[in-house]
Design goal:
By secondary structure, the chain is α/β, with parallel strands linked by helices. Helix content is 33%, strand content 19%.
Amino acid sequence: MTGPVAVTGADRPMGAALCRGLSADGEVIAIGESPGPGSDLVGVMDYRSSDLRLPEGAREALQGAAAVVHAQPHGPSAGEGFAPEAEWLDVLSRGTYVLAQAAREAEIGRIVLVSPISLMQDYPADFVVEPWWRPRPRPDGESLAPYLAELVCREIARTGAIEVCCLRMGDLDDSSAGTSSGDAVAAVSAALQSEAGAGGYSWRVDHALTGGS
């Protein structure tokens, strides 16, 4: 993949880690909801604050990008209770749809979606859960919101106009059941650099976990 990579959720831990790691090999456009990144984005010169639910904001955020890493769905929601849950559901469902449509309009060929592995946590502990198994989201906003982001991306991919690779990851740098920053960057880099498909429906899912996860 050549050209700048837009990374959403740059004001959140996973997005910030991916911005720092990916900037070592190329230009990164960091996109977040907050006015500023909130953490050190070493090597990233371009931070864009945007509400991705707004079509014009999404188009401006993606200007100049060759690929999109949608890391916003990874990590905890803004808070507990009905209002924060409803907001998070809207941010990740409508925001992902608007972002994907803006990517299509900009003729961006690939989205890498970073989703939480917690969507698979309710399978029995002794099961070896494979990426193609159906997620089991819990009935709360923190779980349903990233699941809806996956569904939106999957359906957008069905149009054949854009490729989507979904990477489910554990908690960032959690030594017992997570995904290290290095492994997260390596998985996303591999997804960005993989060869383009022959056209048509292109939706892939993989799990990127570290150690004994």
